[in-house]
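Hello K.,

You asked for the raw outputs rather than the summary table, so here they are, unedited. I folded two proteins back to back in the same session to keep the settings identical. This is the first:
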Amino acid sequence: MKKKLVLTVNAVLAVSLLAACGKDGGDAGAPAAGGAAGNAEQKASFKKLGEEPLKLTFFSTSGTFPDVEFNTLIAAPIKAKYPNVTIERISPAAQTTNEEVLSTYTPDIIYSSSSSHQRIIRTGAYEDLRGLIKLHKFDESRIKPILYDYIKEITKGKGDAIIAIPFNANQHVLYYNKDIFDKFGVPYPTNKQQTWDEVLDMARKLTRTDNGKRYVGLSVDNLTGLAKGLGLPYVDRTTGKAALDTPEWRRIFELNKKIFEIPGYVAPDKKWNYGREEFYKDQTIGIRVTWLANMVGPMEELRQQGVEFNWDIAPAPNFADQLGKTREAQIHSLSVNSKSKHKDEAFQVIAEILSDDGQKILARNGRVPAVINPALEKEYGLDIPVLKGKTVQNVFVGSPLQEHYVHPYELEITSKLTDAGADLAINGLDVNATIRKASEAINKEVETLKTTIGAP
């Protein structure tokens, strides 16, 4: 039985107007080669955004995107520019799957990331945007290549559709709790990129128990997070087999093993996996290396609830021979639903959000813009209170990698890497045995997926 969905109309905030986007637009075909033709007869029926009262619906399929960000970055700017246009967010009941939502509702605009792109492709919900891009004269050259190239890579050789427009670059940083550093007399991370060896040294000094309270020095999102520092795929694109038995992956497994071996890191109850809750609610994590979007929006919501503490940002670390590079920049993207009755208007909304003024709002509220405009880096974080006084320019130290090609089965086999983390942390396996076990589990799961999902 499908779960009941709740459609929430979000409050409109006062913001500065966005610059005007493209002219009359058009309808596009399903995500297959070619897209909309955009002939003269079609153009006569196109409606310019804002000419008539219109409600568009919006659905977030993955990633951290709290209501405070949806209002500030999307709903409010569009309402300010186009008073006749309202963007409503579809908020499904807990545990409702994307597939259930998309089979029940037809959101006009779809927000997604590498954590959902491949699954949404299988639903057929993505419109091929090439026709709309052409009709609106949307300037694709403004988009950062590491983001747009990733989007193009998803369908390369399979119709070459453009299924999404990058919305922002979700980069990685090092968050640290200054109170914990002060408590144990450990110097703060520097404003230059540090090596993993240097960060591990800090983590060892911060991992301890004080007055019965456990503190853990470092959280890194484990194998999947660490692998993003080298841009590593989980499944080989050509063979469809596990891609873990390589020198690069072995380096990642060995680093994660060192982290788990820090005295006191694994709790007496065998807890070994630490994340956002422990950092910003429990405040027992000294350092957390993770996505910007995973933390900034939720910490702003927490601040609005009256919870604050003393933290800051440093550049994400890397191996000594990889300094100057940071982790992969995850693409958060906006798409038009192939079944929408308002494809043209939905694309105009996306184009508006990708305008310089729209991206300026993103930057000032803690998201890294998708467009090439170095001036926006100077505006980063200026309008979001939780970033006041933080060393936000450390976000831009180092060059992020392009996100690796996410295999159609990758989302389904990621749990095998969590299992591998447990094998390293608490099950007593060495690196070689863990890689063998994880590879076998992935290969077995891939064979099952070929039957249940179909050939990639």
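The second followed immediately with the same parameters:
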Amino acid sequence: MSAVTTPADVHRLLGGRLHAWRHHLHRHPETAFAEHATADRLATTLQDLGYAVARGVGGTGLVASLTRGDADDDRPSRTVGLRADMDALPIQEVEGREHGSTNPGTMHACGHDGHMTMALGAAAVLAEEGGFTGTVRLVLQPAEEPGRGAQAMVDDGLLQRFPIDVLYGLHNLPGVPAGHLHVRPGGIMASEDNFTITVHGRGGHAAPPEAVVDPLVAGAEIVLALQTVVARNVDPVHPAVVSCTGFETDGARNAIPSTVRITGDTRSFDPQVQVLLEERIRGIATGVAAAHGARAEVTYTHEFAPTVNDPEVTARAVAAALAVLGPDRVVADCDPVMPSEDFGVLARHVPACFSLLGNGTEPGRGGTPLHSSDYDLNDEILPAGVAFLVQAVRAELPEP
């Protein structure tokens, strides 16, 4: 492994550029597949650093490439990818921040501004200091929040047009001490599947309930019965979540409804568990509805693939993190987390590792939950993220 660039080195090398980049991106958020100004800003910065930039990959996505080394070298050339997400959320940010969003109803409430900044920082260090032979590619992805951007880039020929041998990604994590890196081999972030259960009954006046088929009662029993799926059908060693998140009717105060609509989602890591969850949700919904003389229709969709880390790549990521952060700041076999990330789509095609970087534990200093209107990425973690990504690239590629 080449010489180590520590977070302190990153701070010295990049000075105020990291804060300036991050705050500009935070002020100008754009939602999924609308990241036009964001992509322009990133492309210009990367071109100024010497990267060749391809635009419009998968919609608004970018791929920026930099190759170093002797073309006559007989060693096989390798390519390392660094992926960062670009989109913001349709959330109105709290007022009063100097770098607050200037786009009403839109904000970087998940830290993608910081992820882009860390990728830019790594690109700058690698361009300005080198220390590797081969190719580094930045994959700047649109539309992570709805889970569509990674697949859009793949469908647009990302991996055929821009081959990648190994891929790294990073996400900030509130609730973990700032600058501490958590990673694990295997599943680290869950799949997300969505379901809608529509219960059809026979509505009518609330006074003679014997004259109707009440879908509200059937729907309530379905919601309760679904709580047994994880408790009684899923092997306890396999994490899973079934959540009902919506319950709507077409009734009125004095009218029993004809239709009830239940919405929700499931989380898991194992494809067989995904299949089991769908089967049980369908079986319970139709069975309970039938027991009440009603009828249930179930729609079940797969929104996010689980993010599964390659064990060998993860081992190298751990070594890189230990080199730049130290053993007290690295957890090499963390617990998996149940939120989802469409990095999992890319990890199905390329040996990959996705890591979680602590954003802080105190409210206002990194501890505010993701997707909150008062969330903000902790600028203090930027040098740690940059140092890790730089070291991961150099660990994968030979020295000059």
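The longest strand covers residues 191-200.

Happy to rerun anything if the numbers look odd on your end.

Regards,
P.
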